[in-house]
């Protein structure tokens, strides 16, 4: 079986994607810390700012264990940023939902993430659309 060597262009693209991801995580952690949140707490709050959801779905979206999500939600709840409420569709299920304060904090957190905004501002609308479409294709 011949060895499968990756071409230099693919290696360069993979390296650049890795650098983008690392920079994003670094800035996300920094932005979270300015709001006295861990990166994981900020990600959960960001998800819950979009819509209330059960712990299991949060865990699926973050690709982590539901028990980890429970601890994160507990800490956010103790700060008044998140609350648990019954799911109107199934009262046996509890939804985690951002409170008003949680929604405001989530908005401020998103506004403080300059990493993606600044470099993307240097691209035209058409270039951003091409980048978006290529990333969507990569993700299937």
Outline of the structure:
By secondary structure, this protein is α+β, with helices and mostly antiparallel strands. It has seven helices and three strands; from the N terminus they run ααβααββααα. The radius of gyration is 19 Å and the shape is globular.
Please describe what this structure looks like:
This protein is of the alpha+beta class. The protein is 68% helix and 12% strand. The chain has seven helices and three strands. The protein has helices spanning 8-34, 39-50, 55-62, 66-78, 100-111, 114-121, 125-139, and strands spanning 53-54, 82-87, 90-98. A three-stranded antiparallel beta sheet has the order 1-3-2. A hairpin with a 2-residue loop joins strand 2 (82-87) and strand 3. Helix 2 (39-50) crosses helix 5. The radius of gyration is 19 Å and the shape is globular.
Provide key terms for this protein.
140 residues; alpha+beta; 7 helices; 12% strand; globular
**Helix segment tally:** 7
What share of residues are in beta strands? 5-15%
Terminal CA distance: 29 Å
Encode the helix/strand succession as letters.
Answer: HHEHHEEHHH
Low-confidence stretches: none
Overall geometry comes to globular
Rg over alpha carbons: 19 Å
Classification by helices and strands: alpha+beta
Largest sheet: 3 strands, antiparallel
The helix content, as a percent range, equals 55-70%
Question: Strands across the major sheet, in which order?
Answer: 1-3-2
Average of the residue pLDDT scores: 90
Number of β-strand runs: 3
